[in-house]
Amino acid sequence: MLNDSEKNKRRIALVGAGNVATSLALALQNAGETIVAVWSRSNESAMLLGKRLECSFTTEVELLPDADIVIITVTDTALPAVARDVAKHYPKALVVHTAGSIPMSLLYESGFKYYGVFYPMQTFSKARIVDFSTVSLFVEACNKEALEMLKSLAGKLTDKVYSVTSEQRRYLHLAAVFACNFVNASYSMAAELLEQNGLPFDAMLPLIDETARKVHNLQPRDAQTGPAQRGDNTVMSQQRELLDEDFRRVYDIMSEYIQKNRHI
Amino acid sequence: MLNDSEKNKRRIALVGAGNVATSLALALQNAGETIVAVWSRSNESAMLLGKRLECSFTTEVELLPDADIVIITVTDTALPAVARDVAKHYPKALVVHTAGSIPMSLLYESGFKYYGVFYPMQTFSKARIVDFSTVSLFVEACNKEALEMLKSLAGKLTDKVYSVTSEQRRYLHLAAVFACNFVNASYSMAAELLEQNGLPFDAMLPLIDETARKVHNLQPRDAQTGPAQRGDNTVMSQQRELLDEDFRRVYDIMSEYIQKNRHI
C-alpha cells in the first residue's frame, strides 16, 4: 500500500532529453520530485537521460506512463508538432513548455485544457550541469490553480521565481540573447585574437569574472569602461587596424553604441 | 635610525589618480609597499587619493619626492606629455606605465633610461575597489634587472604574472575590449530591453554569472548557445522584429558571427 506522501507525489514526465531537460531533471530529482519517464525523438538521447535518471524512456509518446505534470523541453521548431502528440496522450495532465519565445497560447491551440510555461533563464550545455538554485524561473499558467502548482514546483528549485506574461517572456528571452549568447560570442572573439598571438585565454578569466561581478552592484551603463567610453580615438583607430573586416564591423558597432550611451 | 627593512623599502610614486591608480595603490599598500606621493593634473583627484592613502599629493611633477619606482597611470592620450615631464624629474627611478596599447618604446623616447610596463588586465571603476589577487598582470622591461624588479612587485599582488612583448600586449588589450567592454555593452543593451518592458535586470544576474563561469571549463566556442547557434531562424526573425534599428544591427552582426563559427 502507498503511504500518504507517496500517494501525494507528483509524477513528472519529460518530453525532450536535451540540455535543458538534463539539468532540469537532475535538479527536480535532487529536490525530491519523481520523474517517471523521458521521451525523445532520438533513442540514444532518451536512453542516455533515462539511464542517468534511472527511469523509463521511450521514443513513442503513446508509450509514456501516467503523469501529473508533463514538461516539454524540445526545440521551438519541434514544439508545435510534439505538443499536438502530447495533447492526445495526456488530456488531463498539467503540461508546460520551457521555451523563452513561444507564447503560452500555443499549448491551448495544441488541444491542452490545463497548461502553462516554466521558463528557466539560463544557458544549458550537456557538458555542464546547472545548479538550479542560481537560476531565475519565469512561470505563466492557464489558471490560478495551475499557476500555484508551477510556483510550488519552481520554488523547490530556486527562490528566484517570477510570474510573467508571454509578451514579457519574449523580451526576457531577447535580453538573454544579448546578456548571454552575444556575451559568449564576444568571449569567443577575444579567444580567437589571443590564440592568433600565442596568448592564453585563461589570462582573460579574471577580467571576465570582474566584468560580470561589477553589474551586481552597478548598472551596466555605469560600469562601462574602455577606449570607446573614454573617447580615446587614438587607441580606437590603432585597434581597428589590428582587426580583419568581420571583427572590425563588430568593433565599430559596439563602440558606437558605447559612445552614444556614455555619460559625459 | 632606519632598520634594514625600512632602508630596503622601495619608495613608490604614483603619477595619475584615476580608477587604475586607486585600486593599484590600495593593493600595493595592502601588500606592504610604500606609496610616497600621488600626482594628478587635477587637484581634487590628487587630494582625494592622497588622503585615502595617507601620503602627500601634488599637481606639480617637480614637487614629487624621491622614489625608486614611478608608476604612471594617466590616460593614453595624456601619457606622452606627462612622461616627458616625469623623465626630467626622475632620471634614475624605474618608471613604468600601465597602458595596454602603448608600446614600451614610448618611455625610451620620453628620455627614460630605466623603464618598463606594468599592465593590469582588469576593468577599474572608482566605485569599486578591485581585488588584485584576481588580476592578471603583464610586465615588460628595458633589461633583466628591471624585469625582475617588476615581476617581484607584481608577484606581491597576484600570482598571475606574465612577461609579454609590447606587440602581444596590444592584442591583450584588444581582446580585453571584446571580453570586457563589449560584454558590458551587451549587458547594457539587455538592461535597456528589460527596463522598457518593466522587467528587473537582477533576474539576469544568474545567467550572466553562469555565462562567465562556463568559459572557465569550456572554450567559448564550445559554450555557445542560443537561437543563432541552434540555427533557429523562426525565433531569430521574431526577435529581430522586437528591436529598433541600432539593436537590430548588433543582433544581426553577432548572430552572423555565431552562425559562421558554430560546430555543425
CATH topological fold name of the largest domain in chain A: Rossmann fold
Domain count of chain A, please report it.
2
Q: Which oligomeric form is depicted? A: homodimer
Query: Any idea what the shape of chain A is?
Result: elongated
Total strand segments of chain A: 8
For the record, what CATH class of the largest domain in chain A applies?
A: Alpha Beta
Distance between the termini of chain A: 72 Å
By DSSP (H or I, 4+ residues per run), the number of helices of chain A equals: 12
Average pLDDT of chain A, rounded to a whole number, is 93
Strand arrangement, major sheet of chain A? 3-2-1-4-5-6-7-8
What does this 3D model show about the protein?
Two copies of one chain form a homodimer. The first copy, chain A, is α/β, with parallel strands linked by helices. The first copy, chain A, folds into two domains: 4-164, NAD(P)-binding Rossmann-like Domain (Rossmann fold); 171-261, ProC-like, C-terminal domain (N-(1-d-carboxylethyl)-l-norvaline Dehydrogenase, domain 2), CATH 1.10.1040. Helix content of chain A is 49%, strand content 14%. Chain A has twelve helices and eight strands. The first copy, chain A, has helices spanning 4-8, 19-30, 43-53, 79-89, 105-109, 144-155, 166-195, 205-214, 220-223, 227-230, 233-241, 245-261; strands spanning 11-15, 34-39, 56-58, 69-72, 94-97, 115-121, 136-141, 161-163. An eight-stranded mixed β-sheet of chain A has the order 3-2-1-4-5-6-7-8, with helices on both faces. In chain A, strand 5 (94-97), helix 5 (105-109) and strand 6 form a beta-alpha-beta unit. Chain A is elongated, with a radius of gyration of 22 Å. Chain A starts with a helix and ends with a helix. At the A-B interface, helix 7, helix 8, helix 9, helix 10 and helix 11 of A face helix 7, helix 8, helix 9, helix 10 and helix 11 of B.
